[in-house]
Amino acid sequence: MKPDPRLSRRQVLRGGAGLALASGLPFAGTASAAGAVIGEYDVVVVGAGAAGMTAALTAAKRGLSCVVLEKAAKFGGSAARSGAGIWIPCNSVLAAAGVRDTPEQAARYLAAVVGPSIPVSRQRAFLANGPAMLSFVMANSPLRFRWMEGYSDYYPELPGGMPDGRSIEPDQLDGNVLGAELANLNPAYLATPAGMVVFSADYKWLALAAVNPKGAAVAAACLARGTAAALAGQKPLTMGQSLAAGLRAGLQRAGVPVLLNTPLTDLVIENGKVTGVTVAAGVVKARRGVIVGSGGFEHNAAMRAEYQRQPIGTQWTVGARSNTGDGILAGKRAGAALDLMDDAWWGPAIPLPGEPYFCLAERTLPGGLMVDSAGKRFVNEAAPYSDVVHTMYDRNPTSPTIPAWLVVDQHYRNRYLFRDVAPLLPLPDEWYSSGAVKKAWSVEALGTAIGVPPQALRATVNRFNGQALSGVDSDFRRGASAYDHYYTDPYVLPNSCLAALWEPPFYAFKIVPGDLGTKGGMRTDARARVLRADGSVIPGLYAAGNASAAVMGSSYAGAGSTIGPAMTFGYVAANDLADHP
């Protein structure tokens, strides 16, 4: 039975009967009494992000009654804010695009990336269920996907790695499919340029639009898509907006209620089994189990201080603000073991006013280098973003690298988009006033401005310029991996990653350890069941997404290594509940 669309969330929770009506189940209590049961389902899902909504859709299509409880006032979580790359080898989208991959090749690569810290059973479960999950989502929602051609696996030189990549992203979706519910979609981290329809794979070319014919052609195609959508009366969505909206539309069709502004306060445990959750209005019972997909703890300062390396805080993350570890803490109280709590989906970030900027193309484009407090390079700037931050933390105690600085010249600024600032245009004044950016007319003066030895910075730039002219970075091997060349300028030779810095003024952008979210959480098995420290299962409790310890371990296989496993293990959890009454 589908919920009455006229019922508001307030009506759903008021007096207890509303929630039962929304579920189509008999009312089992009154909300006026403390701990009263206000609704009962087969499955209760905590969190309306990619993991939670995939789990709920799966449960519903397996014939289980289900509700999604979302803490925030908007649905979509961090997934809605993201570029929504999805890393799932051997799926039907890749096959249709002519990508040659095999399960054996994918297994070799994943094992090489994550190492022995992640049980082989979990790796196999992800690889085996990912393609089926994606096909299921396409069959039960309006979502369609496209290959991000050329977006290399992050370690393509490892056994099984693919230089052309395995990542896919959502295709364009008309937001009108959600009706009024579209207003409840969590906004994107960065707004798409007005009048354009832009995919994640377009951004590498948009950064080059001023200097590269393909970049200009991609910009024109983005504008043409936007114009066509406007003429058709559509509300075009791409990237994380498309993914979250498409999953929500699937839940609408399946009659699954998503209750916003409904935070989890704790898990209900009876006779050693998790049998529901508590929310402000009372208890929501789960006859079969609870699936926690509530995200990480990136906005919980106390947890970050307890578990992670310093300096750290909540101000450098771009994860959803509602992610404060509620589900992880509830699982811990229930006896769950926690893993990978010191780690995150790291990436170099510029602490711009209002919100940090997760720096991808800008640190990879030729004509830039990163330096530490001594004015020296310390990393391959084009390496996978998580590796760059791991290096920053590893070095910081002895050779301070937090903050580091990304140094570029005016020639670089004349050629490339920086965040959303077009070439030749001045950077916003508030970037300078906040201290996130410094500018000077000589390399030495820039060194003084950022507090590094001026002559050391000059020596570093001189050495880098020599390597750029030769095309060989003998210090950090920038450009040696196919991955290094994704966000680069193919017109720069002999190495598209490297160009000399020579034209004043010079700029320095402050770089701090940002993240897309934390990656530590409850320990789970191959069936997404939550485990205690002794390896025993907590009956009735499942976890997926950033509320669980990542199947990627401390590494990152490719673009979408967050969302791909999150959706897959949400799918696995719901199927396990359906298969084991």
UniProtKB/TrEMBL annotation:
EC numbers, comma separated = 1.3.99.4
Question: Which Pfam families does the entry mention?
Answer: FAD_binding_2 (PF00890)
Per the database record, which ranges form the FAD-dependent oxidoreductase 2 FAD-binding domain?
42-563
Cofactor field: FAD
Keywords per UniProt: FAD, Flavoprotein, Lipid metabolism, Oxidoreductase, Signal, Steroid metabolism
Q: Which reaction does it catalyse?
A: a 3-oxosteroid + A = a 3-oxo-Delta(1)-steroid + AH2
Q: Where is the signal peptide, in residue numbers?
A: 1-33
InterPro entries associated with the record? FAD-dep_OxRdtase_2_FAD-bd, FAD-oxidoreductase_2, FAD/NAD-bd_sf, Succ_DH/fumarate_Rdtase_cat_sf, TAT_signal
Give the GO terms filed under biological process for this record: steroid metabolic process
Using the UniProt record, name the top-level EC class of this enzyme in a single word.
Answer: oxidoreductase
In terms of SUPFAM superfamilies, this protein maps to: FAD/NAD(P)-binding domain, Succinate dehydrogenase/fumarate reductase flavoprotein, catalytic domain
| Annotated GO MF terms | 3-oxosteroid 1-dehydrogenase activity
Q: Which family does it belong to?
A: Belongs to the FAD-dependent oxidoreductase 2 family. 3-oxosteroid dehydrogenase subfamily.
Q: Which PANTHER family match?
A: 3-OXOSTEROID 1-DEHYDROGENASE, FUMARATE REDUCTASE
Protein name (Swiss-Prot/TrEMBL): 3-oxosteroid 1-dehydrogenase
Q: Which organism is it from?
A: Amycolatopsis umgeniensis
Organism placement in taxonomy: Bacteria, Bacillati, Actinomycetota, Actinomycetes, Pseudonocardiales
